[in-house]
Design goal:
By secondary structure, the chain is of the alpha/beta class. About 40% of the residues lie in helices and about 15% in strands. Helix 1 (about 20-30) packs across helix 7 and helix 4 (about 105-115) crosses helix 6. Bound molecules: flavin mononucleotide (FMN). The site of flavin mononucleotide (FMN) has 16 residues, from helix 2 and helix 4.
Length: about 200
């Protein structure tokens, strides 16, 4: 475990398929000493149970439970309820510069694109957009409708990084871990935190 830095990031998990991407990203950021504000939609809990067999407890013990499951320090993360309007993620004045929604459901994507701000994930993303800070979305759906594509285009034109959960195969993945790491490395590259574990093309 490396020592904590002053950097922090909001990691939001929504109910699209690909819970393993979120778990790996949280693990890698914790190992890199980055503080994480973690937001979890109700649908994300359903998908975590379905895809990772992970039943998370209620909010009071969520942070330690997640840290224990991922075998990382709970000192570097904090989970919030989606109506915690007093949390740092809810306001631009808290100064958090980066946010990732991973995986990002088409529902959350649409609500971010419309500026709904109806829960803390949507509000935090809205803050990133209005403050012109970094917002990364990792959408997962197939096929994509014109509504999905238009929402992505709208957000992309506002400076959002759209990093679809689309694995590449040119690095010749042999395990599911290789495929998960491939995407998480791309997200970490864009977050621009030090990522010494990343596999780089051409090395
Ligand atoms: C197992 C499972 C897999 C799902 N996969 C996707 C998906 O890949 N993409 C998507 O947009 N929605 C997916 N959904 C549907 C979303 O969970 C649903 O639209 C939900 O309302 C999204 O809520 P949220 O955006 O608040 O997380 C999935 C649901 C379940 C239970």
């Amino acid at each position: 475990m490396k020592s904590a830095t002053h950097e922090s990031v909001i990691v939001a998990i929504t109910g699209a398929s690909g819970a393993a991407y979120a778990l790996r990203l949280i693990q890698r950021l914790a190992n890199a000493g980055i503080f994480q504000h973690i937001l979890l939609s109700d649908a994300a809990r359903v998908v975590l149970k379905q895809e990772a067999d992970l039943s998370l407890p209620e909010m009071a013990s969520l942070t330690p439970a997640l840290a224990e499951y991922l075998n990382v320090s709970g000192d570097l993360m904090r989970c919030y309820t989606l109506d915690d309007w007093f949390s740092p993620a809810a306001s631009g004045s808290a100064g958090i510069k980066k946010m990732v929604v991973i995986p990002c459901s088409m529902g959350t994507l649409a609500r971010i694109a419309s500026g709904a701000s109806d829960n803390l994930i949507e509000r935090a993303a809205d803050v990133m957009l209005k403050e012109r800070r970094q917002l990364i979305l990792v959408p997962r759906e197939t096929p994509l409708s014109s509504i999905h594509l238009e929402n992505m285009l709208k957000l992309s034109r506002m400076g959002t990084d759209i990093i679809p959960a689309m694995p590449g195969f040119y690095h010749r993945p042999e395990t599911l871990d290789d495929i998960i790491n491939f995407l998480v490395d791309r997200v970490l590259d864009h977050l621009d935190f030090a990522n010494p574990e990343a596999q780089k093309w051409g090395e």
